[in-house]
Design brief:
CATH architecture of the largest domain: 3-Layer(aba) Sandwich
Helix content: 40-55%
Shape: globular
Radius of gyration: 20 Å
Distance between the termini: 25 Å
Structural class: alpha/beta
Number of helices: 12
Strand content: 5-15%
Length: 341
């Protein structure tokens, strides 16, 4: 039986695009103190009084617009990725979502059933290229708790973020190559947004992140957990690898929630600005996501396109995420095989 197993972790999805399932999912997601990082009573008030009364209906409509016959695109694609990695490894590979199904605990249970009593180690791979308390940190905490409950003698090893790993960059650039070859006026890198306070909270130095306009250009220990510095590094590595001229690309942040100050510029604002500036053919790539999901398929692929065309743009394309691209599968399987980046 196996002494080692692999657990892939991703965000998750509602069970269906029906309002009740979306409400249940949003409640679980937003009540995570590393997502909405306020004290529990205030978080409960915000979620129950201001978000859950209306947002589930709007979100359910958005989910219905991208839902597949097989289910949620994120879950379907994550399962396909896990299966593709399993084909290349002898160790058991399972999938666990931070929210919704299959849960992290369900993934650990599957591993324990398949690996048997000889299991000594689980390699946990958060499928997020960049560190954030609302993604990597909460996923690791959840995985550690599940393993502690179900298999306290099993060691949990966590694969770190891979934002500038050459194999990730190569896979990302190769997956985008056909779209770049079709021609474009501008390539916009759209990363998931974060409240600025999250960056300050995860700054181990307590005095670097967002303290100056050039903080991400100044070497610091903060880079180990600085989301903004890591996404800028991904962008720089990609454009160098793909040969993108400086004047033909930019960075923006999507998926804002609430009124607090978030990372800027916003993706919607940049899409509209570029169209108004005269960009006619826009490509958008979303490297913060390895699998297509609501944020890429609906927010960018549908609403982003609508905004661009409304402002005078002529051609808009969202480059698909890595999904099951062969180079991405090989990179991930290689890290899992070696137990490290």
């Amino acid at each position: 039986m196996a002494r080692r197993a692999i657990l892939l972790g991703n965000l998750g999805s509602p069970d269906s695009p029906e309002v009740a399932d979306v409400r249940r999912y949003l409640d679980e997601f937003l009540m995570d103190g590393r997502v909405l990082d306020f004290p529990w009573p205030l978080r409960r008030l915000i979620v129950s009084a201001f978000i859950l009364p209306k947002r589930p209906q709007a979100s359910a409509h958005a989910y219905r617009s991208i839902w597949w016959d097989e289910g949620s695109p994120l879950v379907v694609l994550s399962r396909r990725l896990a299966a593709a990695v399993q084909e290349r490894l002898d160790e058991p590979v399972a999938l666990g979502m931070r929210y919704g199904k299959p849960s992290t605990e369900a993934g650990v249970r599957e591993i324990l059933e398949r690996a048997g009593d000889d299991l000594e180690e689980i390699l946990f791979v958060p499928l997020y290229p960049h560190y954030a308390m609302s993604t990597v940190e909460t996923a690791v905490v959840d995985a550690r708790a599940a393993v502690a409950r179900l298999a306290p003698r099993v060691r949990l090893v966590v694969l770190p973020p891979f934002f500038d790993h050459p194999r990730y960059i190569e896979a990302l650039a190769e997956s985008a190559r056909p779209h770049l070859a079709d021609g474009y006026d501008h390539l916009l890198f759209s990363y998931h947004g974060l409240p600025e306070r999250h960056l300050r909270k995860t700054d181990p130095t307590g005095k670097h992140c967002l303290r100056s306009d050039t903080c991400c250009a100044s070497p610091s220990l903060a880079f180990q957990t600085c989301y903004r510095a890591q996404v800028l590094r991904t962008t720089a590595a990609f454009v160098e690898h793909a040969g993108i001229p400086p004047e033909r690309h930019g960075v923006a942040f999507q998926s804002r929630l609430g009124r607090d100050k978030w990372l800027e510029p916003t993706t919607e604002g940049e899409i509209r600005r570029l169209a108004q500036k005269g960009v006619k053919k826009l490509l958008v790539i979303c490297p913060a996501f390895v699998s297509d999901c609501l944020e890429t398929l609906e927010e960018i692929g549908m609403r982003g396109k609508e905004a661009f065309l409304a402002e005078g743009g002529e051609a808009f394309a969202q480059i698909p995420c890595l999904n099951e691209h062969p180079l991405w599968v090989e990179a991930l399987a290689g890290w899992c095989r070696e137990g490290r980046l």
